Amino acid sequence: MLKRLKLSDYCCHRRLEVEFRPGINCVVGSNGKGKTSLINAIYAVLTGVHTHPDGAQGVIRQGAEQATIEADFVASNIYLKSQNKAMYQSMIAASGLTESEIVERMKLRPELLRSFFGAIRENYGSVENFLEKELGVGAKEQAILIQKFTK
Questions:
Q1: Do 11 and 68 contact (CB within 8 A), yes or no?
Q2: CATH for 14
Q3: Which of 44, 65, 79, 82 is deepest in the core (most CB within 10 A)?
Protein backbone atom coordinates (compact mmCIF):
# COMPACT_ATOMS: atom_id res chain seq x y z
CA MET A 1 0.00 0.00 0.00
CA LEU A 2 1.27 3.48 -0.84
CA LYS A 3 1.78 5.26 2.48
CA ARG A 4 3.50 8.52 1.53
CA LEU A 5 4.41 10.38 -1.65
CA LYS A 6 6.86 13.27 -1.76
CA LEU A 7 7.36 15.35 -4.91
CA SER A 8 10.13 17.87 -5.52
CA ASP A 9 10.11 20.10 -8.62
CA TYR A 10 7.57 17.78 -10.22
CA CYS A 11 5.32 19.57 -12.75
CA CYS A 12 3.72 22.50 -10.89
CA HIS A 13 4.75 21.21 -7.44
CA ARG A 14 7.88 22.78 -5.94
CA ARG A 15 7.47 20.57 -2.87
CA LEU A 16 4.51 18.37 -2.00
CA GLU A 17 4.20 15.63 0.58
CA VAL A 18 1.04 13.54 0.87
CA GLU A 19 0.28 10.93 3.54
CA PHE A 20 -2.21 8.27 2.47
CA ARG A 21 -4.48 6.45 4.90
CA PRO A 22 -5.88 2.93 4.61
CA GLY A 23 -9.11 2.87 2.60
CA ILE A 24 -10.18 5.42 0.04
CA ASN A 25 -8.25 8.69 -0.33
CA CYS A 26 -9.68 11.63 -2.31
CA VAL A 27 -7.78 14.35 -4.15
CA VAL A 28 -9.75 17.59 -4.18
CA GLY A 29 -8.81 21.08 -5.39
CA SER A 30 -9.59 23.81 -7.86
CA ASN A 31 -8.49 23.74 -11.50
CA GLY A 32 -4.78 24.01 -12.21
CA LYS A 33 -3.57 23.15 -8.71
CA GLY A 34 -1.80 19.89 -9.58
CA LYS A 35 -4.33 17.13 -8.90
CA THR A 36 -3.58 15.42 -12.22
CA SER A 37 0.17 15.81 -11.65
CA LEU A 38 -0.23 14.04 -8.30
CA ILE A 39 -2.13 11.16 -9.94
CA ASN A 40 0.48 10.98 -12.73
CA ALA A 41 3.29 10.83 -10.13
CA ILE A 42 1.52 7.94 -8.40
CA TYR A 43 1.16 6.19 -11.75
CA ALA A 44 4.87 6.77 -12.51
CA VAL A 45 6.04 5.42 -9.17
CA LEU A 46 3.83 2.32 -9.51
CA THR A 47 4.61 1.54 -13.16
CA GLY A 48 7.90 3.30 -13.95
CA VAL A 49 6.19 5.06 -16.86
CA HIS A 50 5.65 8.83 -17.08
CA THR A 51 2.47 9.85 -18.89
CA HIS A 52 3.86 13.21 -20.02
CA PRO A 53 4.44 13.31 -23.80
CA ASP A 54 8.12 14.22 -23.17
CA GLY A 55 8.57 11.40 -20.64
CA ALA A 56 10.62 12.00 -17.50
CA GLN A 57 12.07 15.25 -18.89
CA GLY A 58 8.58 16.70 -19.29
CA VAL A 59 7.74 16.53 -15.58
CA ILE A 60 10.61 18.75 -14.41
CA ARG A 61 9.17 22.00 -13.00
CA GLN A 62 10.14 25.02 -15.08
CA GLY A 63 13.43 26.46 -13.84
CA ALA A 64 14.44 23.31 -11.92
CA GLU A 65 17.26 20.92 -12.77
CA GLN A 66 15.48 17.68 -11.91
CA ALA A 67 12.24 16.32 -10.53
CA THR A 68 12.08 13.69 -7.82
CA ILE A 69 9.39 11.35 -6.61
CA GLU A 70 9.84 9.56 -3.30
CA ALA A 71 7.36 6.94 -2.19
CA ASP A 72 6.98 4.92 0.98
CA PHE A 73 5.07 1.67 0.83
CA VAL A 74 3.70 -0.63 3.50
CA ALA A 75 3.98 -4.28 2.56
CA SER A 76 1.14 -6.31 3.96
CA ASN A 77 1.20 -9.57 2.05
CA ILE A 78 -0.56 -11.94 4.40
CA TYR A 79 0.56 -14.91 2.31
CA LEU A 80 4.21 -14.32 3.26
CA LYS A 81 3.61 -13.93 7.01
CA SER A 82 4.48 -17.52 7.87
CA GLN A 83 7.63 -17.39 5.73
CA ASN A 84 8.65 -14.10 7.35
CA LYS A 85 8.17 -15.62 10.83
CA ALA A 86 10.59 -18.43 9.97
CA MET A 87 13.11 -15.98 8.57
CA TYR A 88 12.81 -13.76 11.66
CA GLN A 89 13.35 -16.72 13.99
CA SER A 90 16.72 -17.54 12.46
CA MET A 91 17.71 -13.85 12.54
CA ILE A 92 16.63 -13.58 16.20
CA ALA A 93 18.75 -16.61 17.08
CA ALA A 94 21.77 -15.25 15.20
CA SER A 95 21.55 -11.63 16.35
CA GLY A 96 19.88 -11.67 19.76
CA LEU A 97 17.50 -8.93 18.58
CA THR A 98 13.72 -9.04 19.00
CA GLU A 99 11.44 -9.51 16.00
CA SER A 100 10.29 -5.86 16.17
CA GLU A 101 13.93 -4.68 16.26
CA ILE A 102 14.72 -6.75 13.18
CA VAL A 103 11.65 -5.47 11.32
CA GLU A 104 12.61 -1.87 12.16
CA ARG A 105 16.21 -2.32 10.99
CA MET A 106 15.08 -3.88 7.71
CA LYS A 107 12.86 -0.94 6.72
CA LEU A 108 13.97 0.94 3.63
CA ARG A 109 14.38 4.58 4.63
CA PRO A 110 14.35 7.44 2.07
CA GLU A 111 17.03 9.38 3.96
CA LEU A 112 19.42 6.44 3.52
CA LEU A 113 18.68 6.29 -0.20
CA ARG A 114 19.38 10.04 -0.52
CA SER A 115 22.62 9.57 1.41
CA PHE A 116 23.58 6.57 -0.76
CA PHE A 117 23.04 8.39 -4.06
CA GLY A 118 24.67 11.54 -2.66
CA ALA A 119 27.79 9.53 -1.83
CA ILE A 120 27.84 8.04 -5.33
CA ARG A 121 27.64 11.54 -6.86
CA GLU A 122 30.34 12.81 -4.50
CA ASN A 123 32.73 9.95 -5.23
CA TYR A 124 32.01 9.38 -8.93
CA GLY A 125 30.48 12.64 -10.14
CA SER A 126 27.33 10.89 -11.32
CA VAL A 127 25.41 7.65 -11.10
CA GLU A 128 26.32 7.03 -14.75
CA ASN A 129 30.05 7.19 -13.93
CA PHE A 130 29.51 4.76 -11.05
CA LEU A 131 27.63 2.32 -13.30
CA GLU A 132 30.41 2.40 -15.88
CA LYS A 133 33.38 2.21 -13.52
CA GLU A 134 32.10 -0.25 -10.90
CA LEU A 135 29.58 -2.36 -12.82
CA GLY A 136 30.85 -2.13 -16.38
CA VAL A 137 27.55 -0.73 -17.65
CA GLY A 138 28.57 1.49 -20.56
CA ALA A 139 26.84 4.42 -22.21
CA LYS A 140 24.99 2.22 -24.71
CA GLU A 141 23.56 -0.04 -21.98
CA GLN A 142 22.73 2.98 -19.81
CA ALA A 143 20.81 4.55 -22.70
CA ILE A 144 18.76 1.35 -23.02
CA LEU A 145 18.03 1.36 -19.27
CA ILE A 146 17.08 5.04 -19.29
CA GLN A 147 14.80 4.50 -22.29
CA LYS A 148 13.15 1.51 -20.62
CA PHE A 149 12.70 2.89 -17.11
CA THR A 150 12.16 6.66 -17.46
CA LYS A 151 9.34 6.82 -19.99
A1: no
A2: 3.40.50.300
A3: 44
